[in-house]
Write a structure and sequence with these properties.
The chain is of the alpha+beta class. The chain is built from 10 helices and 20 strands. Strands 1, 2, 8, 9, 10, 11, 18 and 19 form an 8-stranded mixed beta sheet that branches.
């Protein structure tokens, strides 16, 4: 049953919302999590968890289980078919986690949910928040067009179309990616030679193909295609893999486990903290999946928001504003980074051979590789 009062109400029970809930519950804060969906996610979606994110997740005792279930990928490369243009390695990073972890989003969410339950938490679902008002002492949430929950503070982790963001009157910027090329994605089982512990971006003359190994032996494929089918089948994905992927050895798709499509957006909320309300994850920022930064940034938001709420509950009147001042610039930085990667990946076809030649040249410069891998790993978010 939904309580009538709580210290912190979290709207949204995806990985970001539940990670924040774990951090709060683990520090003795009364937290209530609300989600409109009847069940959690059952698709893989975001698949990479980077080193800095693993560092912060150790605080809520989930990193080890995620690593046990996931696949460690110490290398990341940009390729032109079989030629490596830009080799990147996490092996020399200043962190205990010298790899990016491949793990499907539904498993990340399940592990976080299990941890929240172990801390005594219950996700209240399906319950839709339909209204929010705040005053100097708290926030009133209207739920399912009827009952009301009074919270001292609120975290909006309810995605790109956030009701919380709209209710506090925060704009979501201008989407300068609107109308850009569509992307197809699929999780597939294959026969043939794809790197087993390396995330690869293939820069072909007809477009980009991202290939990420998954812990169940499957591979995630993502490609810019213009207009993508709603559910890409094996023949469609095979054509992309054969045209843009490795050529030295034949790679054959045996089975499509899941397929979908998406368009990218680049937006950042005008503010991340308004009164007693904070925003985190896609409620505050959405951007290209280039470099696998989205969920990673959101999870780091979550732990930062939890710290801010604990400080505010302890009497620190400026804690929430500091969160906003810290996290929004970080979101802007990540959006700029993913924009550059996306422009590079989807450059005009006539310029793609020149792009590949240039990348092959800078790929031999240790300074370039070092900066790139440091950014990918999220270590500049310390």
């Amino acid at each position: 049953m939904i309580p009538t009062t709580t210290d912190v109400a979290i709207v949204g029970a995806g990985p970001v919302g539940v990670a924040a809930a774990c951090a709060l519950a683990g520090r003795g804060v009364d937290v209530t999590v609300l989600d409109a969906a009847a069940t959690g996610s059952d698709t893989s979606r975001a698949t990479l968890v980077h080193p800095r994110t693993l560092e912060v997740l150790t605080r809520i005792d989930v990193a080890r289980r995620m690593i046990d279930e996931g696949l460690r990928c110490p290398d990341f490369s940009v390729r032109d078919h079989d030629r490596v243009l830009l080799p990147l390695s996490f092996a020399e990073l200043d962190t205990s986690f010298r790899f990016t972890l491949a793990i499907p989003q539904d498993r990340t969410e399940a592990i976080l949910t299990d941890r929240f339950a172990a801390l005594g938490g219950v996700i209240q679902r399906p319950h839709r928040v339909t209204g929010l008002t705040q005053d100097d002492s708290g926030v009133d949430l209207t739920i399912d067009e009827g009952r009301t929950l009074r919270a001292r503070f609120v975290l909006g982790a309810d995605g790109m179309h956030s009701l919380v963001r709209e209710a506090i009157g925060v704009g979501f910027g201008v989407d300068d990616a609107a109308g850009t090329s569509g992307f197809a994605l699929g999780d597939v089982r294959i026969d043939g030679g794809l790197p087993q512990r390396e995330a690869c971006i293939y820069f072909g003359n007809t477009g980009v193909l991202v290939v990420v190994p998954l812990p169940n032996g499957a591979f995630r494929l993502v490609a810019d295609v213009g207009e993508a089918p709603e559910s890409p089948d094996a023949a469609y994905l095979q054509a992309l893999l054969s045209e843009r992927g490795p050529q030295a050895r034949q790679v054959t798709i045996k089975e499509v486990l899941w397929g979908s499509r998406f368009r990218i957006h680049h937006r950042v909320a005008d503010e991340f903290a308004v009164g007693r309300v904070l925003l985190a994850g896609d409620a505050g920022h959405v951007h290209s999946p280039a470099g696998g930064q989205g969920m990673n940034l959101g999870l780091r938001d979550a732990l930062g928001a939890a710290d801010a709420f604990v400080a505010a509950l302890g009497g620190d009147a400026r804690a929430l504003q500091r969160y906003g001042a810290q996290r929004r610039p970080r979101a802007l930085s990540v959006v700029r980074f993913t924009k550059r990667l996306t422009r590079l990946a989807t450059i005009n076809p006539r310029l793609r051979p020149a792009r590949n030649l240039a990348l092959g040249g800078v790929g031999h410069l240790p300074g370039v590789r070092g900066r790139m891998v440091h950014t990918l790993a999220g270590l500049n978010d310390r």
